[in-house]
Amino acid sequence: MRRSPEHSGFTLVEVLVAVIILALVAFGVHGFVSRILVSLRVSSEQDAERARVRGFFSLVEAQLAQLPAQGPRWFAGQPHVFGGRSADSMEWDAVSGPGVLTGAAPGVCRVSLELKLVGASSTEQEIGFRRKILGDNSVGRESWVPLLRPVSSLQIRYFDGPRNTKPERWTDTGSVPTLVYLSLQMRDGDPVEEVVLSVPAARVSGARAAGGGAQGRDGGGQDGGGR
Q1: Is residue 110 part of a domain?
Q2: Does some domain include residue 2?
Q3: How many structural domains is the chain composed of?
Q4: Which helix (H) or strand (E) holds 224?
Q5: CA 61/CA 225 separation, integer angstroms
Q6: pTM assigned to the model
Q7: How far apart are CA 170 and CA 176, in angstroms?
């Protein structure tokens, strides 16, 4: 049955159907856009977190570059476990400046890289530098510099070049390792971030030792020829 010209237009049912279709399309577009926005936000947060981890690794690498190649020095590392997760620590001596992140520290500071609970009632951990002026037993002279949080675990391993071993602890406090392996996990279930850092002082010390040995052997040969 055809509509008469004076009754042309949409019926109420047609209008309702059109509204429902538009609502479904709008709902689908909204869900799609929402998922895109969430993905972009998560990706941005992950990129920012990776940048913070890379910055932390670069900072530790800069501290290792400050270690002296000769003379009095201290370097040690110990494995620890907290809550079933690795919570290793590494410590060294540094003078005021980049090594202790301050230019006003008097004398030599013992700097320790370690994990610490954010608060007494918190289970969240952060990684940072603990600084203590050597020979100063004054209360409050120890300071804490937070670097990265949250951190679930921190594992530190070392490469002993002369012995060709990879110990989990470093006890020869008068020497430094050739390489330092850092592995950290921000949260349970997150991928483990790893980096291998070189220690310039170890290369310089090894080259000097090798040069001294070669000179000793050459000198011995010359002496023998003279006799």
Answers
A1: yes
A2: no
A3: 1
A4: helix 200-226
A5: 48
A6: 0.72
A7: 8
